[in-house]
Amino acid sequence: MTDFTLHGYFRSGASYRVRIALNLKGVPYADVFHHLRKGEQREPGFLALNPQGFVPALEAEGDVLTQSLAICEYLDELFPDPPLLPATPLARAKVRAAAQLIACDVHPVQNLRVLKHLREVGLTQDQATAWAARVIGEGLDAFEALIGRQSGPYCFGDRVTLADLCLVPQLGNARRFGVELVWPRILEVERACLALDAFRRAAPENQPDAE
Amino acid sequence: MTDFTLHGYFRSGASYRVRIALNLKGVPYADVFHHLRKGEQREPGFLALNPQGFVPALEAEGDVLTQSLAICEYLDELFPDPPLLPATPLARAKVRAAAQLIACDVHPVQNLRVLKHLREVGLTQDQATAWAARVIGEGLDAFEALIGRQSGPYCFGDRVTLADLCLVPQLGNARRFGVELVWPRILEVERACLALDAFRRAAPENQPDAE
């Protein structure tokens, strides 16, 4: 019996972020998987937990938390070591901004819900894929510019931060949509992250519900 | 001369959030407006500040901060009174999740950039507007369910939080897209917020660049 239950889906990039955070913090958790392509996140039992019908959701303290970045910051406040954010307000803001660039401006604009919606309003599958690829490409261009000013193996230096937790899952999506990864600093960071057990264990292909 | 310069646009919902935060904290700031419909955010001078080419951006401490929620949390850390987040990790996570529901899953999926993109791939103006209205409606349905469990004049009780800073600007967008506002708790919160000087002074129509 663990204190935390993560509702997720192997291929959900936002669930992947939370899995990395749990692993980095060494927090044991139980998994409940919801197959998004089969619409299991719209079943009444799950909607009672999260009215938005999205994964991830984390059962904790007899309550339910939603939104991956809010969950990661919650875990960071409960289990401060290792920290996911630097110490000064300015440095914290820069890490959060990089994370939000992906979590606000890239991922939700290219996720399954939006692509389905695009098909419903008449776009072809190829047009929907091109949409996703363009959104990801524009976002990663800006992300590369942001972190290009930093040094160190990870996005913001010698420690993994919330920015790395967002970047690595997004690169998985980028590849699925055929985006050519032309960003040297981003690829260098990805290599450093994937050398860590916490990232590898969180990867989609290593989840029990992987297809 | 002030220590903070906000790059924004009167109608940008994300800039509006930051204006409310600055006003609530009583922090003086200088304004620079970029006319998004004229594409001024793509000019080289601004791209040098924010490679993503989005507003808001806040010049602070000789650096540039981007992403509205990251900026609001930065201001909250520098100027803790009044706080924009509650005290316990669980309560903070719930406020952040409500804020992110809007900042990740609603606003970026219906903003000017995406609507322009939809027109480019062949949707009519009416279809693009219907898209925005649907995204907003689904998001506010979930938001109402989240905050319906709370009492008090604001989203999460007796104090304004980051959730209110996201909700009020989003309702302005909802009206612009003709969304019928059918959520009683949301409307009650909006009334309470708009009774505050910090919200009213931040409103789009009260900005010097308002049309």
TrEMBL record, chains A, B:
Q: Which parts of the sequence belong to the GST N-terminal domain?
A: 2-83
Kindly list the biological process annotations in GO that this record carries. Answer: glutathione metabolic process; L-phenylalanine catabolic process
Organism source for this protein? Sphingobium amiense
Instruction: Drop me one GO molecular function for this one.
Output: maleylacetoacetate isomerase activity
- What keywords appear on the UniProt entry? Isomerase
Q: What name has this protein been given in UniProt?
A: Maleylacetoacetate isomerase
**What CDD domains does its record include?**
GST_C_Zeta (cd03191), GST_N_Zeta (cd03042)
- Annotated Gene3D superfamilies: 1.20.1050.10, Glutaredoxin
